[in-house]
Automatic annotation (TrEMBL):
This is W2 domain-containing protein. Residues 147-178, 272-288 have a biased composition (Basic and acidic residues). Keywords: GTP-binding, Initiation factor, Nucleotide-binding, Protein biosynthesis. It comes from Dioscorea zingiberensis. Residues 231-401 form the W2 domain. Signal peptide: none annotated. Residues 226-235 have a biased composition (Acidic residues). One of its GO terms (cellular component) is cytosol. Residues 179-190 have a biased composition (Basic residues).
């Protein structure tokens, strides 16, 4: 069965773990009785964790045609002859309105009905609650036919299996890339031994200290050739980074200094009323100005966006578990000093860093448990991060099962 990523915005992501079957349709009947049968509607609905009657009814509402879904046989019919591409486009609209989280875009949501007869989508990953537009015709049908409560984690297990397959494919791709690099390296060694070199380069001889081997008719080119040869030798050297906690802290401070410098420039250009500052400032003053600029830029709803923009700086500093814990404590301290809008996005920020492999599950759980047991256990940070932590715990328990 051919699979595709859930959501048109994720169609080009080869490692996206949320999958659904491609739609298959069939035209049945003739004349006024012609109908379009969505053959695999049940499988699509299972992948979206929504009843098949919802998607079938949505097609009928959008096309202005009668639609019917038989619960016993699983047959989904829409009156009229409709193209597969057109129905697939309508399905994407359904996913945006009733499946994907409005905050993080994760399709792992659940439809809930409030006391005021309003529909909301609660995300199991970040805990964000999305308000559904009640002007849509399908909302009336959902209120009359509320979704059943989930009894098991079959859908989540399917997602976990897809994630394992994605990891296996990524490991296979890495192995192939390593093999290609080894083959290219071997070819380069053989070419140097046989005296064959690419066009525009010179072959290298081993230095023995004799005058004949060091002599060259063109003296001006000796230095250039030696530099090129030294560059070839550098490819065989394996460089290792210092992974100690002190070195990690030093690298983080260097990266933060680069970020603060950029934020200082941004703040100076966006505030024309302030007096112009000299280009060169003392290091302590520039660092303080950078911190204030970061607080001004990240306070509020732009916190998660700014973290996404600066992920390359953070990735360069993340080398071990110690640097991960230092980053989490920095987020905790920052959210504790800012307004409520920034604290609300702490789950989105943590999930983004987790998806980008900058934070691992064990470090997040250790940080959360230490925070609850510490002196600052009443902070709003732990209340807002709790849905994401519960999602991690449920995913871990299902994986163990």
């Amino acid at each position: 069965m051919a699979l595709q990523n859930i959501g048109a915005s994720n169609s080009d992501d080869a490692f996206y773990r949320y999958k659904m079957p491609k739609m298959i349709t069939k035209i049945e009947g003739r004349g006024n009785g012609i109908k379009t049968n969505i053959v695999n509607m049940v499988d699509i609905a299972k992948a979206l964790a929504r009843p098949a009657s919802y998607t079938t009814k949505f097609f009928g509402c959008e096309l202005g045609a009668q639609s019917k879904f038989d619960e016993k046989s699983g047959v989904s019919l829409v009156n009229g002859a409709h193209d597969t591409a057109k129905l697939a486009g309508l399905l994407e609209n359904f996913i945006k309105k009733y499946v994907q989280c409005y905050g993080c875009g994760n399709p792992e949501t659940e439809i809930t009905i409030t006391k005021n007869q309003m529909l909301t989508l609660k995300c199991a990953a970040c805990g964000f609650v999305s308000d559904v537009d009640m002007r849509d015709k399908l909302t009336t049908f959902i209120l009359k036919n509320p979704p059943e409560q989930k009894k098991g984690g079959k859908d989540k297990k399917t997602m976990r299996r897809a994630e394992k397959e994605r990891l296996k494919e990524g490991e296979a791709a890495d192995e192939e890339q390593k093999k290609l690099k080894k083959e290219m390296k071997k070819k380069g060694v053989v070419a140097r031994k046989e005296g064959i070199a690419p066009k525009g380069t010179t072959t290298k001889k081993k230095a023995t200290g004799s005058d004949e081997e060091h002599s060259s008719p063109v003296g001006g080119q000796i230095g250039d050739n030696e530099v090129a040869e030294d560059d070839d030798d550098d490819n065989d050297i394996q460089w290792q980074a210092d992974t100690s906690l002190e070195a990690a802290r030093q690298r983080i401070e260097e990266q933060l200094s680069a970020v603060t410098a950029e934020m200082v420039m941004l703040s100076s250009t966006t505030k024309p009323d302030q007096e112009e500052k000299p280009k060169k400032e003392p290091k302590c003053e520039a660092r303080n100005n950078g911190r204030h600029s970061i607080q001004e830029a990240w306070v509020g709803k732009g916190f998660a966006k700014e973290v996404g923009k600066k992920k390359n700086y953070l990735a360069a500093a993340m080398t071990d578990e110690g640097s991960q814990m230092l980053l989490l404590h920095s987020i905790e301290a920052f959210c504790g000093k800012c307004n409520a809008e920034a604290v609300k996005e702490v789950a989105l920020v943590t999930k983004f860093l987790y998806d980008e492999d900058l934070l691992d599950e064990e470090t997040i759980m250790l940080w959360y448990n230490e925070g609850l047991a510490g002196a600052n256990k009443s902070s709003h940070v732990w209340r807002n991060i709790k849905p994401f932590v519960e999602w991690l715990q449920s995913a871990e328990s299902e994986t163990e099962e």
